[in-house]
Protein backbone atom coordinates (compact mmCIF):
# COMPACT_ATOMS: atom_id res chain seq x y z
CA UNK A 1 0.00 0.00 0.00
CA UNK A 2 1.41 3.38 -1.02
CA UNK A 3 1.96 6.01 1.62
CA UNK A 4 -0.12 9.17 1.29
CA UNK A 5 1.74 12.22 0.00
CA UNK A 6 2.86 14.71 2.64
CA UNK A 7 0.68 17.79 3.17
CA UNK A 8 3.14 20.20 1.51
CA UNK A 9 2.78 18.24 -1.74
CA UNK A 10 -1.02 18.12 -1.69
CA UNK A 11 -2.09 21.44 -0.16
CA UNK A 12 -1.64 25.02 -1.21
CA UNK A 13 -0.20 27.41 1.32
CA UNK A 14 -3.69 28.88 1.76
CA UNK A 15 -5.14 25.46 2.63
CA UNK A 16 -2.60 24.63 5.34
CA UNK A 17 -3.43 24.64 9.02
CA UNK A 18 -1.49 26.95 11.33
CA UNK A 19 0.55 23.95 12.51
CA UNK A 20 1.36 22.89 8.95
CA UNK A 21 2.28 26.47 8.00
CA UNK A 22 4.60 26.82 10.99
CA UNK A 23 6.24 23.44 10.30
CA UNK A 24 7.37 24.67 6.87
CA UNK A 25 10.08 26.76 8.50
CA UNK A 26 13.30 24.76 8.20
CA UNK A 27 14.97 26.60 11.07
CA UNK A 28 17.87 27.95 9.01
CA UNK A 29 17.60 31.47 10.50
CA UNK A 30 18.49 33.21 7.22
CA UNK A 31 15.31 35.29 7.20
CA UNK A 32 16.28 36.65 10.64
CA UNK A 33 19.45 38.23 9.29
CA UNK A 34 19.32 41.98 8.73
CA UNK A 35 19.09 43.34 5.24
CA UNK A 36 20.06 46.77 3.92
CA UNK A 37 17.67 48.49 1.50
CA UNK A 38 19.31 51.40 -0.28
CA UNK A 39 17.33 54.62 -0.59
CA UNK A 40 16.89 55.82 -4.12
CA UNK A 41 17.61 52.53 -5.88
CA UNK A 42 15.68 50.18 -3.61
CA UNK A 43 18.50 47.66 -4.05
CA UNK A 44 18.76 45.01 -1.38
CA UNK A 45 21.91 43.76 0.32
CA UNK A 46 22.14 40.86 2.74
CA UNK A 47 24.24 40.82 5.91
CA UNK A 48 25.46 38.18 8.32
CA UNK A 49 24.04 40.15 11.27
CA UNK A 50 21.27 38.40 13.19
CA UNK A 51 18.30 39.88 14.99
CA UNK A 52 19.01 40.20 18.69
CA UNK A 53 16.40 37.52 19.44
CA UNK A 54 18.00 34.89 17.20
CA UNK A 55 19.93 32.23 19.07
CA UNK A 56 23.11 31.82 17.01
CA UNK A 57 23.58 28.18 18.05
CA UNK A 58 20.05 26.87 17.45
CA UNK A 59 19.06 29.38 14.70
CA UNK A 60 15.73 29.72 16.52
CA UNK A 61 14.06 32.84 17.87
CA UNK A 62 14.62 33.07 21.61
CA UNK A 63 11.15 34.59 22.13
CA UNK A 64 9.08 33.63 19.09
CA UNK A 65 5.73 34.27 20.80
CA UNK A 66 6.60 37.84 21.77
CA UNK A 67 8.97 38.68 18.92
CA UNK A 68 6.72 41.29 17.30
CA UNK A 69 6.32 43.15 20.57
CA UNK A 70 10.08 43.11 21.23
CA UNK A 71 11.12 43.71 17.60
CA UNK A 72 8.33 45.79 16.00
CA UNK A 73 9.72 45.44 12.46
CA UNK A 74 9.85 41.62 12.69
CA UNK A 75 7.81 40.27 9.80
CA UNK A 76 5.04 37.79 10.46
CA UNK A 77 5.03 35.89 7.21
CA UNK A 78 1.62 35.27 5.68
CA UNK A 79 0.61 33.93 2.31
CA UNK A 80 -0.65 37.38 1.32
CA UNK A 81 2.76 38.90 2.09
CA UNK A 82 4.73 36.21 0.30
CA UNK A 83 4.50 37.80 -3.16
CA UNK A 84 5.61 41.19 -1.80
CA UNK A 85 8.63 39.99 0.15
CA UNK A 86 11.74 39.92 -2.03
CA UNK A 87 14.26 38.92 0.61
CA UNK A 88 13.28 35.36 1.55
CA UNK A 89 16.18 33.02 0.90
CA UNK A 90 15.81 30.94 -2.27
CA UNK A 91 15.84 27.78 -0.12
CA UNK A 92 12.89 28.95 2.00
CA UNK A 93 10.11 26.34 2.04
CA UNK A 94 7.39 28.99 1.83
CA UNK A 95 8.97 30.37 -1.31
CA UNK A 96 9.69 26.93 -2.81
CA UNK A 97 6.16 25.65 -2.29
CA UNK A 98 4.68 28.89 -3.61
CA UNK A 99 6.85 28.42 -6.74
CA UNK A 100 5.85 24.73 -7.09
CA UNK A 101 9.34 23.45 -6.24
CA UNK A 102 10.28 20.53 -3.96
CA UNK A 103 11.79 20.80 -0.50
CA UNK A 104 15.46 19.87 -0.17
CA UNK A 105 16.62 16.61 1.45
CA UNK A 106 17.86 18.52 4.51
CA UNK A 107 14.49 20.13 5.28
CA UNK A 108 13.24 18.67 8.59
CA UNK A 109 9.90 17.70 7.04
CA UNK A 110 11.76 15.59 4.46
CA UNK A 111 14.60 14.27 6.64
CA UNK A 112 12.56 13.85 9.82
CA UNK A 113 15.39 15.51 11.76
CA UNK A 114 15.53 19.22 12.65
CA UNK A 115 19.33 19.01 12.82
CA UNK A 116 19.87 18.21 9.12
CA UNK A 117 19.56 21.89 8.20
CA UNK A 118 22.61 22.52 10.41
CA UNK A 119 24.49 19.36 9.45
CA UNK A 120 24.08 20.28 5.78
CA UNK A 121 25.63 23.70 6.45
CA UNK A 122 22.50 25.56 5.33
CA UNK A 123 21.71 27.43 8.55
CA UNK A 124 23.26 30.54 10.06
CA UNK A 125 25.03 28.44 12.71
CA UNK A 126 28.68 29.49 12.77
CA UNK A 127 28.14 32.12 10.06
CA UNK A 128 26.35 35.01 11.77
CA UNK A 129 26.88 37.47 14.57
CA UNK A 130 24.44 39.23 16.84
CA UNK A 131 23.32 42.77 16.15
CA UNK A 132 24.43 43.51 19.72
CA UNK A 133 28.07 43.18 18.56
CA UNK A 134 27.91 44.12 14.90
CA UNK A 135 27.96 47.90 14.66
CA UNK A 136 27.26 49.29 11.19
CA UNK A 137 25.36 46.80 9.03
CA UNK A 138 27.20 48.01 5.93
CA UNK A 139 30.39 46.51 7.41
CA UNK A 140 28.82 43.04 7.39
CA UNK A 141 27.47 42.60 3.87
CA UNK A 142 27.35 38.98 2.72
CA UNK A 143 26.09 37.25 -0.42
CA UNK A 144 25.38 33.80 1.06
CA UNK A 145 22.10 34.60 2.85
CA UNK A 146 20.45 35.43 -0.47
CA UNK A 147 21.91 32.53 -2.45
CA UNK A 148 20.73 28.96 -2.81
CA UNK A 149 22.89 27.01 -0.38
CA UNK A 150 25.25 24.31 -1.57
CA UNK A 151 24.64 21.85 1.22
CA UNK A 152 26.95 19.09 2.23
CA UNK A 153 25.88 15.78 0.71
CA UNK A 154 23.15 13.77 2.44
CA UNK A 155 24.29 10.87 4.57
CA UNK A 156 24.61 7.63 2.65
CA UNK A 157 22.06 4.91 3.27
CA UNK A 158 23.60 1.88 4.96
CA UNK A 159 24.16 -1.08 2.64
CA UNK A 160 21.94 -4.11 3.26
Q: What's the end-to-end separation, in Å? A: 23 Å
Q: Uncertain runs with pLDDT below 50, 5 residues or more?
A: none
Shape: globular
The total of helices stands at 8
Number of strands: 3
Helix and strand layout, with pairings?
Elements: H1 7-10, H2 18-23, E1 33-37, E2 44-50, H3 67-70, H4 79-82, H5 93-98, H6 108-111, H7 116-119, E3 129-130, H8 131-134
Parallel strand pairs: 2-3
Antiparallel strand pairs: 1-2
Features:
alpha+beta; 8 helices; 22% helix; globular
Tell me what you see in this structure.
- This protein has one domain.
- By secondary structure, it is α+β, with helices and mostly antiparallel strands.
- The protein has a 3-stranded mixed sheet with strand order 1-2-3.
- The chain has 8 helices and 3 strands, in the order ααββαααααβα.
